[in-house]
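Homework help board

Subject: predicted structure for assignment chain

Our instructor gave us this sequence and asked us to write out the predicted structure in token form, then describe one feature. I got the tokens but I'm not sure how to describe them. Can anyone check?
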Amino acid sequence: MKKSSLRTYVVLLRGINVGGHRKLPMADLRSLCAEAGHTSVATYIQSGNVVLRSSMDAPQVQADLEERLLVRLDSAVPVVVRTRSELEYLVENPPFDMRDLDPAKVVVMFSSTTLDSPLATIDAAGFAPERVAATAHELILDLPEGQGRSKLAAAVAKTAMGKAATGRNWRTVLKLLEMTKSVDLAD
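My token output:
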């Protein structure tokens, strides 16, 4: 496999290692990814954040890992895949001025499908000072009081995203982007 044919991806798993359910040690997740033929596999924290390089395209990476996780955990685990350039674009073009925001209180909800009018059923103004913005595949929430107390986050989870989505705070997004650059340099 030529190095030039490899692409760098961020893979986000939904709902593993949460409340004792769907336990998956990160060493096992790295092994599972390597068994699928992916290289330079790295994980970040215990919530299913993976950076890897692959000759597969993003939908193939998603489908393959979902199937492998189903076999391994005997439970369906939604997987969202982003290219390094997609994540980089999001970070370089945030919908909010990030300078004065706490990166732990800005949450990106990543969807594996295109969002069709995701904010149509949400009266975002009614949740101020919380804010939400949409891209074609993400919702970005500014939650000044944090996610645990957020009524907006609860409304978004119920109405706009669906089951094939997973959230990460801005700090994690930045770290994952940094990891993609390190993986690219290592090859």
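Reply (TA_rk): Your tokens look well-formed. For the description, you could write something like this. The chain has a mean pLDDT of 90. That's the kind of observation they're looking for.
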